[in-house]
Design brief:
Layout: H1 2-9, H2 15-23, H3 25-31, H4 33-36, H5 45-50, H6 52-78, H7 83-107, H8 114-134, H9 141-151, H10 155-165, H11 172-195, H12 197-202, H13 208-219, H14 230-239, H15 242-260, H16 267-301, H17 311-318, H18 323-337, E1 345-348, E2 361-364, H19 366-383, H20 389-401, H21 424-436, H22 440-457, H23 477-490, H24 496-510, H25 515-527, H26 544-556, H27 562-573, H28 589-602, H29 606-619, E3 632-635, E4 638-640, H30 643-660
Antiparallel strand pairs: 1-2, 3-4
Helix pairs in contact: 6-7, 6-10, 8-9, 8-10, 9-11, 10-11, 11-15, 13-14, 15-16, 18-30, 19-20, 19-21, 19-30, 21-22, 21-24, 24-25, 24-26, 26-28, 28-29, 28-30
Length: 662
């Protein structure tokens, strides 16, 4: 970008070109960066250094012409839409091309073979534009690739210029570069069509991805496929495997582009191709993961109930006066009978992300079932619903059987993924439920060792626990692998919400024994409170879950200070007009439940509490559940959410409210 700016500043340029480039510097650098030094890609490192000025001028000329091509495309797309824009783009296009030609004319005489190549590339480009506009519905792949190659014909000018300058015209090396560019252009065009599917559909432009989707639906005898809206088409594009097929086709072309020039030393060009190969593989992995997860979810949700609770449970539920609580309990019981499959957390971890396991699909539900046990304990305590003890006994057995059979023990969120170690969040949640169900012997038997490792070997300099449970020294091969992933992928912690949840477990279990550690962790949490009063979470969405687990700990320790006041002010001041709280502008039941639990802890603002309860009861669905809301965030843009978990937390808040009768 600096070379381009310096050249423009030092030469006489049309005002509209200067204004356009200077006012779009950031966008140009972000969206068109590789084209700023396109010619450099086709020059070996040594040649690049020795002929720096020539290469620089070819880069500038090529980029100016590239911009003109972009504007030319806009002109074609908008000629009937906006006459003023058409006129502006027409003048800008001409001036960009004019300046490019000036540079090239100074570098190549009129008799140079360069201009023969130039005219050939220009004709190919305009031929592609014309053919693309003439496409109606379907074309063979060979025609599609011809258009893709010819649309990027001006990119070959950089190759021609470098080969002429280095006396390699029409050599095998020149031909190899051109062939490599052809394959690369096809790959780029396929990916553009995938990513521009919606935009091209709305603009009524031909799109290969759309075309392939319609053809496959027709082969499957899907009626009126062409009348489907774009969102349906896009969903089917992925679910029918068409997206994976096209990314694989793009990958094949990128690989061919790299192989063709593999015996030549075009390092930068090869790196660019390799980057595109990796991006294609990554897209393939993500789509395959999405399809695998969606298929597995569908299978899980279609499983018929295989557990039956005693009739005394259902009989007791029918006697509850509060129908909202009764209906939510019915929903949770029905999910229990189905194996709690709706709340299972499914994740796809592929080799491209560095994971090497027997399965790429991992299912976690230990943490979720521990949350449910905690809420069942609330139901017993607050509603005297002792009949539900039979469910508690089964769930406690499941938790015990799910522990890791390693020398450390503990519980892993995704136990089938060997790169994920046991963690303090699961451990803290399980200590709580063992204590609340009077199973202290299970804490002694299964939790003491991971507790000791955390406290003795996984604490920061100021005594705060990290998130993952691993020894500090003398790690075996698996532990070394897990430690590497903790440091490079997950982050070691400490994490506010994990610290609060684990220390709450220790507080319930033996407050006096762990007094020193509890005090150190409380000090850490107060130091990490945000200016606005909430606690940020590393593993959970929003500001309400982390704030709730922190306030729950402080309440149990009978702490009352300005930090608590600040947090409660945050909760009270962020309530929305409908009585709820939410991740964004809109209220949702999960974050309303967390906020309501905070208010119930300190029994403040009864009007706000009643308003929140009203919102929750109004938001309840007919089957007794509440909508799934983004809750846990293990990977970027892959949130975990569950109707069962939302319902459980809402029920927890409502049962406390019912008991206290605020």
């Amino acid at each position: 970008m600096d070379d381009l700016i310096q050249y423009i500043t030092g030469n006489i340029f049309p005002e509209n070109v200067t204004d356009f480039i200077f006012s779009n510097k950031l966008a140009i650098k972000k969206n068109h960066n590789i084209y700023l030094k396109y010619a450099s890609l086709f020059c070996t490192e040594t040649k690049n250094i020795n002929n720096n000025n020539f290469v620089k001028l070819i880069n500038i000329a090529g980029f100016l012409y590239y911009l003109s091509v972009i504007k030319q495309d806009e002109k074609f797309d908008n000629v009937k839409k906006d006459d003023n824009k058409y006129i502006y783009n027409y003048l800008l296009t001409n001036n960009l091309q004019e300046e490019s030609i000036k540079i090239l004319s100074n570098l190549f005489e009129n008799s140079s073979v360069f201009w023969t190549f130039w005219n050939k590339r220009k004709l190919k480009y305009f031929d592609a534009l014309l053919n693309e506009k003439l496409i109606n519905k379907s074309i063979p792949y060979s025609k599609y690739t011809d258009i893709a190659i010819n649309k990027s014909a001006f990119g070959k000018v950089a190759i021609d210029a470098m080969c002429i300058f280095l006396d390699k015209t029409n050599s095998e090396e020149h031909k190899a570069l051109l062939t490599s560019h052809d394959f690369f252009s096809i790959g780029v065009q396929i990916i553009d069509d995938i990513q521009d599917l919606t935009e091209d559909y709305n603009n009524k432009q031909f799109n290969w991805a759309y075309n392939k989707t319609i053809l496959k639906l027709k082969r499957k005898k899907v009626l009126n496929a062409e009348s489907f809206d774009i969102n349906t088409i896009k969903k089917l594009f992925y679910l029918e495997g068409i997206a994976v097929d096209l990314y694989k086709k793009a990958l094949q072309n990128f690989t061919q582009a790299r192989i063709v020039i593999s015996k030549y030393e075009y390092i930068n060009w090869s790196k660019l191709i390799e980057k595109k190969e990796f991006e294609s593989k990554n897209y393939i992995s993500k789509i395959q993961g999405f399809i695998t997860i969606e298929t597995a979810k569908k299978q899980l949700l279609n499983i018929e109930p295989n557990i039956k609770v005693s009739t005394t449970i259902n009989d007791r539920i029918e006697k509850f006066n509060d129908k909202s609580i009764a209906n939510s309990l019915k929903y949770l019981i029905s999910e229990f009978e189905k194996g709690n499959n709706e709340m299972k957390h499914l994740i796809y971890l592929d080799e491209i992300d560095g994971f090497k396991n027997k399965t790429k699909l991992h299912i976690g539900d230990v943490f979720q079932r521990a949350i449910l046990i905690d809420i069942y304990c609330d139901i017993i305590e607050n509603l005297n619903f002792k009949e539900i003890q039979e469910i508690l006994n089964q769930e406690i057995k499941f938790i015990v059987d799910s522990r890791l059979k390693t020398k450390i023990g503990g519980w892993s969120y995704f136990p089938t993924c060997k790169e994920i170690s046991a963690d303090a969040d699961d451990l803290g949640q399980i200590i709580q439920i063992f204590k609340r169900t009077s199973n202290e012997n299970l804490i002694e038997k299964y939790c003491k060792k991971p507790i000791n490792i955390l406290l003795k070997e996984r604490t920061t300099n100021d005594g705060v626990i990290e998130t993952w449970i691993l020894p500090k020294n003398k790690l075996n091969l698996l532990e070394k692998q897990q430690d590497y992933y903790n440091r490079t992928k997950w982050g070691k912690g400490p994490d506010n919400e994990v610290v609060a949840n684990f220390i709450y477990g220790l507080t319930l279990f033996d407050k006096e024994k762990y007094k020193n550690q509890i005090n150190l962790s409380v000090s850490f949490l107060f130091r990490n409170q945000s200016v606005d009063g909430f606690w940020l979470s590393r593993w959970y969405y929003g500001n309400y879950y982390g704030t709730y687990v922190c306030l729950r700990l402080f309440k149990k320790l009978n702490i009352q200070n300005e930090n608590i006041d600040k947090a409660m002010n945050f909760i009270m001041n962020s309530q929305k007009s409908d009585g709820g709280w939410g991740l964004n502008e809109k209220s949702d039941p999960l974050n309303t439940a967390f906020s309501l639990l905070c208010l119930l802890l300190y029994k403040v603002e009864s009007k706000k509490i009643k308003k929140a309860v009203k919102y929750l009861k109004n938001a309840q669905l007919k089957n007794g559940s509440w909508v799934a809301v983004d809750f846990i965030k293990p990977k970027t843009n892959e949130p975990y959410k569950s109707k069962t978990i939302t319902t459980a937390y809402v029920l927890k808040a409502l049962t406390i409210y019912e008991k206290d009768e605020i």
